[in-house]
Amino acid sequence: MPNIQKVRDVMMSNFTKVDGIAKVSDILNMMKNERINAVLVEPRDENDVYGIMTLKDIARKVIGENRNLHETHVYEIMTKPVLSITSDMPIPYAARFLTNFNVSYAMVIESNDVIGMVSLNGMVNNWVD
To answer: pTM for this structure?
Structure first.
C-alpha cells in the first residue's frame, strides 16, 4: 500500500493568530507583509471558539459592501467557528471535507492543540501523485 500524504505533510505550521477587536486595516497590512491569505482569530475566553478571517472575507464583507477598513473590526467579518482537521487525516479526505463545507481553510489539531492551518491551495500545491 502506498504511503498516503497526511494533513501534517502539507499544513502551514507558521500561522498567525489575531485578536478579534483588531481593525481590519491593521490585520490586512500584516497579511500583506507576511504574504498570508488567512488568520485565525483567538477565542475571547474559555467558552469561545476560534474564528478565521481570509482575504476573501475582506473582499466580500468590507470592500464589496463599501465599508471602511479602518473602522471595521475583525470580529465583524470573520467566520466562526473554524473547521478543524486532525493532523493525521489523509489529504484526499481532508480535501473532500473542506470542499463539502465550501471552505478553503481549516485549522489543524493534534492532542487538542492548534498546530497549524491547512488550505485547499496548499493541498494542491504539495500533492505528490
So the answer is: 0.89
